[in-house]
Amino acid sequence: MSFTLATWNINSVRLRENLVAKLMQEERPDVLCLQECKSPVEKIPLHQFKQLGYRHFVANGQKGYNGVAILSKIPMEDAGRQEFAGLDHARHVAAKLENGVTVHNFYVPAGGDVPDREVNEKFGQKLDYLTDMRDWFHSQPPEKSILVGDLNIAPREDDVWSHKQLLKVVSHTPIEVEQFEQTRDAGKWVDITRQDIPDGLLYSWWSYRAKDWDTADKGRRLDHIWATPDISNAGHGSRVVRHVRGWEKPSDHAPVFASFDL
Prior knowledge:
By secondary structure, the protein is α+β, with helices and mostly antiparallel strands. The chain contains 8 helices and 14 strands. β6 and β7 form a beta hairpin.
């Protein structure tokens, strides 16, 4: 079975319902994973999505914050959700596709503005969340799985617009990158995006603060698609759909795509 998967931090699924529908119509991913839905599950607007063929749905939601959802044209079943770092936040949901592939959708905490857990509780929560993810992968090694989401870390020098200027900025600090890599290594996850696009600057997020985000192009690659080694060779066709960031009243993230032949 061949399928295309996309991950997108939508920054409120109810506010941007029509943008989700537009992506579905124009890009037609078979599986669409959303983060930062900011909605209880029962209030996620499904009618329009179902009309576009996305009849299968799992989610983990809460009012006003966080929230993750998986919408699919392919039959799938709920594969659970995990709570890490004692936060009781809706930051993970999983679904098992009919071909046996498990898709994990994560929204890792952003971590606030100051990269010091002693003065910034949110930064400590982010590091603890990654540690718990790492420990979970060690205790239950994933197989035949894909992990996607807004992981809120740009690990490589060419995943940010300026490595030197962002070394002390949350999302690219050395301690975050080290935690990120430990987490990825724990599950032996393969970075599908960089497997396909090994070199060059690549971003999926541009700040709302930029007057002209496209011209300034001060982006970061915060959104990721990973796969376990047993299926990583089936991944291909990775791309960031950058122009979506320029739609009217957009999310500050652009969708990231990959295809799999399994």
